[in-house]
Amino acid sequence: MAKISKKNYIINVLAIILVFLLLKFFIANGVISKYYLGIIIFICINIVLATSLNLATGFLGQLALGHAGFMAIGAYVSAITAISLKGSGLPTTVMLIVSLLLAGIFAGVVGIAIGIPALRLKGDYLGIITLGFGEVIRVFINNIKMTGGAQGLTGIPRISNIDNVFWITVIVVTILYTLTNSRHGRAIISIREDEIAAEAVGIQTTKYKVMGFAIAAFFAGIGGGMYAHYIAFLDPNTFNFMRSVEILVIVVLGGMGSLTGSVIAAIILTILPEALRDFANFRLLIYSGLLVLMMIFRPQGLFGTTEFSMSGFLYRLRHNQLFSSRKNLEEGD
Amino acid sequence: MALLETKGLGMYFGGLKAVDNFEISVDEHELVGLIGPNGAGKTTIFNMLTGVYLPTEGDITLDGLSVIGKKPYQIVSMGAARTFQNIRLFKDLSVIDNIKIAYHNEMKYTTIEGIFRLKRYWEEEEKAQRECLDFLKIFDMQDYADTLSKNLPYGKQRKLEIARALATRPRILLLDEPAAGMNPHETKELMETIHFIKDKFDIAILLIEHDMSLVMGICERIVVVDYGKIIAKGNPDEIKNNPDVIRVYLGE
Predict the structure, then answer these.
(1) CB contact, 8 Å: B150 with chain A?
(2) Which chain B residues touch A183 with a CB distance below 8 Å?
(3) Is B186 within 8 Å of B155 (Cβ atoms)?
(4) A198 touches chain B (CB under 8 A)
(5) How confident is the model at residue A323 (pLDDT cuts 50, 70, 90)?
(6) Are B72 and A189 within 8 A, CB to CB?
(7) Tell me, what's the pLDDT at A320?
(8) B104:A182 CB<8 A
């Protein structure tokens, strides 16, 4: 088992480095303009937000509608930390890491504080309560001095760039992947599958619910921090309910319980609104129409609960089963 | 001393006495049946024993320790595992993952070790994989290890649920209507399985059942409840001839 995984690790690491080098190559060549670069950075931020929400919604199975709230906490904590560190002469990478970690920890702690009472509820009720908390956070930020209130926060060091954003995204997705494939991840997934049964086989459901929720909030905070350091200006109203819904749409479209799905959906749904700019007035119509069609014809999302794996892909390539569905493979077809 | 013992156990839902003054004791390595007509309070008793409900009155002890107020997962770690009347598997997970989740507390690596895949993660995951496969072999289900549990035939799903409960290494197993929805052939197979696990794992079993052939066939002692009260106790022959039991089941 360990041997095969080692080979897979090397393949995956090489693939990621290849993607990064290609990216750098195209940027240096001018194929990727500044405008495209901005979209790529937004894709990375959305990947972090979507995969983290997927942990709470897809793997843990709890409908959370307040993800933008945790993103806001992360964005502001990170921005304020970086502003106060500006004169200290720290290298920008260290500054970014410190700011993002603080952002994550802050968002995670708030996640625990909200999660403990909120996770007693289920389904729609939990959705409403997280929605409420998300709005509370936004209104709170809107009304205190430290954050600049409704005027917004300016003077944030612009230290997110494609290099660090890319690698942070890779690290976040990797951590989420290894987490969901450990015994703790299985405990989290068992709660989605059947909470009563999970408790009846000895899983501490409350603990793992709060844990999953807090880790999701932690990474949402980091995503918010990345956003703050790229935009360099924060307005509380960008973190409204619609932002939470946008992230949720990515998760649902990609497949609840599939990290690869979230990554692919984040790419599609970040590019799509930009690509449709030429159609001006029809843009939102096409966007929403696609979502409707998606839910009718593939309600489980692009990937369902499965993950794309390089070794699985190569296996199918070798056995000419590239286009046969996974179901057939499972049934030993 | 009895392994599982209840004293004056009662559960009221508002004014309704669902269970009243229920007393039972199960010794180590004993197979006890709990029967009664629909609505007699059998599942309520199970839910109290496993910590789902908090009894209104009375006490439950497991190996001398009181389980009142304990959470279900704590009671599991004290050595009582259960199955459900309507099967509750982790449907979208593979058979082996179902077992591995029950095996959760046997693995000791921390979250950090899991995330960064340190040495202990590999050691314990490999050990778990091996032991869970061995476990499936005991139930002759190793060929299904990677099948999604929802795709198993009904009888196998029951078997998996029992296997999953056993993977928590209980001292007493509580089976809630294991033969529900089974055909006679499957029921017979189930009887053999129950006998087999009792000897193999050296555990006590408390069984709720409607299927009389199953209960009479394997139980050493039977407790009959009706309207939340015990109306008869004894070995299968005594129960068969007990006038109260006949009245409850067949009418007067």
Answers:
(1) no
(2) 100, 104, 107, 109, 114, 124-125, 128
(3) yes
(4) yes
(5) low
(6) no
(7) 65
(8) no
Q: Which two tokens stand for residue B178?
A: 């294991």
A123, amino acid identity? G
A159, A103 Cβ separation under 8 angstroms: no
The H-or-E segment that residue A330 falls in is: helix A326-330
Angle between helix B154-166 and helix B184-201 axes, rounded to 10 deg = 20
Distance between CA atoms of residues B84 and B174, nearest Å: 9
Among all residues of chain B, which has the CA nearest to that of A304?
B92
Sorted by sequence, the CB contacts under 8 Å of residue A70 that are 6+ apart come out as A107, A110, A111, A134, A137, A216, A217, A220, A221, A224
Average pLDDT over residues A85-109: 93
Helix, coil or strand: residue B6: strand
Q: Do A1 and B129 touch (CB under 8 A)?
A: yes
CATH of B4-91+155-250, one of 3.40.50.720, 3.90.1150.10, 3.40.640.10, 3.40.50.300: 3.40.50.300
Task: Please check whether residue A171 is in contact with residue A44, taking contact to mean a CB–CB distance below 8 angstroms.
Answer: no
- Cβ-based burial of B97 (10 A; exposed 0-12, middle 13-18, buried ≥19): buried
| d(C-alpha B244, C-alpha B224), whole Å | 10
Q: How far is B223 from chain A (nearest CA, A)?
A: 24
Give dist(CA B5, CA B20) in Å, integer.
15
Residues of B in contact with A211 (CB under 8 A): 111
User: Is A326 a residue whose pLDDT tops 50?
Assistant: no
Q: For residue A147, what are its two tokens? A: 């954050």
CB contact under 8 A, B73 and A205: yes
Contact list in B for residue A175 (CB cut-off 8 A) is: 115
The mean-pLDDT minimum among A309-318, B85-94, B172-181 falls in A309-318
Strand partners, B32: B206, B221
Question: In this structure, are residues A159 and A95 in contact, taking their beta carbons and an 8 Å threshold?
Answer: yes
CA distance A211 to A204: 11
Mutate one of A9, A175, A182 to test the B interface: name it (highest B CB count within 10 A).
A182
Residue A149 predicted with pLDDT over 90: no
What number of C-beta contacts closer than 8 Å exist between A and B?
A: 98
Lookup result for tokens 């921390």: B110
What is the chain A residue with the closest CA to B163?
A201
Which among B73, B115, B126 has CB closest to A175?
B115
Domain boundaries, chain A: 33-247
The domain ranges of chain B are 4-91+155-250, 93-147
The predicted structure's pLDDT at residue A90: 85
**Residues of chain A contacting B165 with CB distance shorter than 8 Å:** 200-201
